[in-house]
Amino acid sequence: MQKDAEIRGKGTGSNNKPNLMSNFLPYAFAATLVFGLMLLQLDIEHLLKLNPTLNYARFMVMIEGGAVTHLQDFATPWLTYISAFVYLIGFSGLLIGTFLVFAYKKDEKSLQEFSIAFTLIYLIAYPFYILFPVDVTSKTLPNMAPLLYTLDPSIIHFVRICDPTLDNCFPSLHAALSLMAMLLIISRAEHIGFKTIAVTITIAIQFTILYLGIHWITDMIGGIMLAFTSYYIATRYRENIVGFSERIVWKDEQEIRKKE
């Protein structure tokens, strides 16, 4: 608690300009890093000279067969539209809402934990997408319909920004990021309404990623494990990570001042 107060207290005074920068840099860095990696995925695969036909979906079939197809046995148009809304809007709203709740409460500690966990999840998942691509279930299983992708042509174009070849399945980012946000809301937020909304959306997301013909059950399990891992690291080692980043910012700022 004392260290947290000291960190927040550094934001005043001209000698603490680097710390003011460090309040915003983690979130800008996380967003820029993730967006950059998404855009560069195909370029990185070409740079590594990976076989474009490389795919490990067959191992998912060996592990779980076609179990996920049973979720579409009771598919209806209204359920598909609701699921698509949860997948596209609910997921984004949960992540943005989590950030805004902590920002509104000026909870710097929780914002730092969110930023660290968010970045960790993507950095850990990214090598799997590059080296061990797994096709979506609707592209692999003959009895699985691509419910999300056939709703509107604009949806598939949007999805391909994040997943160019529809093979970024394991682990599921939707499962990992939503659960991570829910864990932070439950443990850090005080308002019961926020907690209820976070839990409801997170549970709904776990269903939709399977029902819409996108993820395997194994993907969801991998995403859940990744969420708990990143949450533990972010909450357990936040002070160490933030302290390290602040030392780097302070060092860079000092070098700039010397040159001036």
TrEMBL record:
The record's subcellular location field reads: Membrane
Q: Which InterPro entries match?
A: Aur1/Ipt1 (IPR026841), IPC_Synthase-Related (IPR052185), PAP2/HPO_sf (IPR036938)
Residues of the Inositolphosphotransferase Aur1/Ipt1 domain? 75-233
GO CC annotation: membrane
Task: State the annotated membrane topology for this chain.
Answer: Multi-pass membrane protein
Tell me the keywords, alphabetical order.
Membrane, Transmembrane, Transmembrane helix
TM ranges are 24-42, 78-102, 114-132, 173-189, 196-214
What name does UniProt use for this protein?
Answer: PAP2 superfamily protein
